[in-house]
Fold this sequence. Notes:
Blueprint: E1 12-17, H1 28-37, E2 40-45, H2 50-62, E3 67-71, H3 83-93, E4 98-107, H4 115-132, E5 136-141, H5 144-154, E6 159-161, H6 168-176, E7 179-183, H7 193-201, E8 207-209, H8 231-242, H9 246-261, E9 273-276, E10 279-282, E11 302-303, E12 306-307, H10 316-323, E13 331-334, H11 344-356, E14 361-365, H12 369-373, H13 378-381, E15 387-391, H14 397-404, H15 411-425, E16 428-434, H16 441-451, E17 454-458
Parallel strand pairs: 1-2, 2-3, 3-4, 4-5, 5-6, 6-7, 7-8, 10-13, 13-14, 14-15, 15-16, 16-17
Antiparallel strand pairs: 9-10, 11-12
Helix pairs in contact: 2-3, 4-5, 8-9
Bound molecules: iron/sulfur cluster and zinc ion (ZN) (2 copies).
One zinc ion binds next to loops.
Amino acid sequence: xxxxxxxxxYSLIDTHCHLDMTEFDSDxxxxxxxxxxxxxxRIICIxxxxxxxxxxxxxxxxxxxxxxxxxxxxxxxxxxxxxEYEEKLRTLAREDGVVAIGEIGLDYHYDNSPRQIQQxxxxxxxxxxxxxxxxxxVHSREAxxxxxxxxxxxxxxxxxxxxxxxxxxxxxxxxxxxxxISIAGPVTFKNAKRLLKITASVPDDYLxxxxxxxxxxxxPYRGKRNEPAFxxxxxxxxxSIRGVRPADIARITTVNARRLFRIGKLPEKGTLxxxxxxxxxxxxxxxxxxxxxxxxxxxxxxxxxxxLRLEYEPDIEELKSAIGDPSRxxxxxxxxxxxxxxxxxxxxxxxxxxKAKGGRIRINTNGHGNLIHKRNILPELKGLVDxxxxxxxxxxxxxYNRICKPLYRNAFKAVVEFIKEAKTITxxxxxxxxxxxxxxxxxxxxxxxxxxxxxxxxxxxVVG
Length: 464
Ligand code: SF4
Ligand SMILES: [Zn+2]
Ligand SMILES: [Zn+2]
């Protein structure tokens, strides 16, 4: 069934598709074949009621390792729910190939079932998910407050807001509970302004993609029946919105989907070097002299679909072979999943090697280098480092201590000093802050202006 040579080399997971529906009765085999040829490695077939879930399960048997099933009653039909119905769903949900409870939720747009009943049925199915330790696929339309309240009360932390259509606040609250945000075909529509902003802002670690086929066909097939192979158009649009390559979105969302639904393999070994756009990022240590509240290391081992959790710190030879030819890249970046300047001697040696081979170097640092080594290390990096990206992260010492929890006293002052010193060895210095509520971004921008360096606001949970 599986083919190995995928067009474009993408490997995608369509996390929401209704392959069981009659729209696919005449050509289901062909649809699945086309999906596989287009690089869709897995399809989650979403049940909307008992009968549909049964069909999804039998499809998951027929196309084992490609199709997976979910079990749930859609809010449209919530009024059909009885205790016998619940028992039947529960039994189905234990079958092989079932990876989630869903789709369940609230739909106040159509109001096909009374709202009170929708809520009760949503709550009951959430408890099935908890009981069976399965993630949930949530459908929520024009029902933000009730959806969030019920999810919070359920205490569940694994799920996806499918075909996300809410606002940014809803996305943030869902992500804070651990839920993924799944983007579907509407992101390719002309009038998708709000969705565009959300698609640009969701951190990598929370992003999923879906078709919701046969519905919501993306441009350029809008108007036709949707099918999993069309997912690539949604992915291409998301990539262009986020300024990355479709292959990056594919890798990121595929890892996320595998994690959420516990299907397929995850990259096990820590990645030493990974490409984002034209830059190569090096992961040389996971140690850091800060413990920032927003640090992605405390939330995930994965950045843009790469496992950055190192089992051990690589030596220089391993890093050289992970880099290959440095001149192939616009720049080589020492990444911020840990503080690279903790390994100063290795950094210097590696920089010398990269420079000799015609590479350009940027170091992403928390600016503690001088504190860590108890001397001004910048002169030692002169001629080796072309650019610095330094995390300022706060507008004053007190805020810095609160959100970055540095190992050292007076760290904020030291960071400011480091910025000044960095300027003496290169013109290319950028300071960054993460957009968290405690931080006064304007004050930080002013401080950067006074220091005569560039300023950039990093999105929460984005490394690099
Ligand atoms: S400085 Fe960077 S790596 Fe260190 S804790 Fe803060 S966010 Fe994480
Ligand atoms: Zn739905
Ligand atoms: Zn659906």
